[in-house]
Design brief:
Layout: H1 7-12, H2 20-40, H3 48-71, H4 78-94, H5 105-116, H6 122-139, H7 144-219, H8 224-250, H9 257-270, E1 274-281, H10 286-307, E2 311-319, E3 322-329, H11 353-365, E4 368-374, E5 377-385, E6 397-399
Parallel strand pairs: 1-2
Antiparallel strand pairs: 1-6, 2-3, 3-5, 4-5
Helix pairs in contact: 2-3, 3-4, 3-5, 4-5, 5-6, 5-7, 6-7, 7-8, 7-10, 9-10, 10-11
Length: about 400
Amino acid sequence: MAVMPGSQRATSWRPWQVPTWAAVAWVGLWGAGLVAPAAAGLGETPHPVLGGVGVVGVLGCFLGAVLGTVLRTGRPGVLPVLAMTAQAGLTTALAGLHGLPWGTLPLLLATAVGVMAPTRWAPGLVTGVAAVAVVLDVGRGASWTSALWGTGLTTLLAGLVTFAITSLSWLVGELHRTRAELARTAVAAERLRFSRDLHDLLGHSLSVISVKAQAARRSLPADPDAAARHASDIETLSRDALGEVRQAVQGYRRTTLDAEVERAAGALRAAGVETEVVRGDTSLTTEQEDLLAWVVREGATNVLRHARARRARILTEGGSDGATVVIEDDGVGPDQDEDAVSPDGLSGSITGSGLSGLRERLSTAGGTLSTHGDARGFRLSVQVPSARGASGRGRSGRMPS
């Protein structure tokens, strides 16, 4: 059974979460079973034809009201409400027919109310139907004890049980939909993570390979040995990149800050960028080190691809108050491309697929990323908060350029 969207449907009405054929079968069998005792006793009434027309009318109104509600996925329209109103009128009128086994007809009305009434009103309306049924049964000559424990209690239970079944059916459907939505969200998050990792991996590796290829091309006429070394580096980098991609696909890849700083500094120097590395990070957790390693990788890639810089500086700091990475260069500042797009073209927050990926990584850990660029260069700064009980290896000092 389809489910109507919207918060009003979810809170006020209870769409059935069962196949249509099952709902129709349940309604038909329930209606026929409750009408059968009254139909079997029509011969004992002074007006069997009139009673038969009334009983058939009650059954028809019940089927029209409940099926009309079920087929509309839980919210009754005008015709089902009119059908239930007619059922209530016929049930009340048949209470005055002497000799008719009338006691099951209020159960049928309470069942219709339990299916059709809004969630907030259903218990009260079912209780009202049971109370009226008790009064009518007493008017037919039954004692109060028999009316209360016979007609009243069974009518109340029929309506409340039906209401509970429809509510449980709706709740099960909500759980199924929630589980499906969580599964879709998990798949989307995993796709985003993988695309982000793949961008970070290949963006850096291909940038370094491109720089090495340019160096090999420039060195080939004058220094074939240097060109051969660059070609060998390209082969090694390509093999490493392929291995990293395979590890990322398998979900086992973990980068380290030491390796990324060394790789970034080597790539920048190979591109002719005078690079200074200052290490002051101590007591970093594994999570902090992973995050800072991704920052160094993306920051160095941006310098290689966009800055056209002569000098660059990589600074890492960390301690009990948190960890920081700063990557700055003296290049041309922000570039209008996929990884650096500034609203004013000079300074401010720069967004793109690479930096956006970093922001997503940092946001989950409570970190912050800020950028500033102008004609004098570009600066990327990332801060990662400290973690209580962090452990790691301390190191400090200056690596020679």
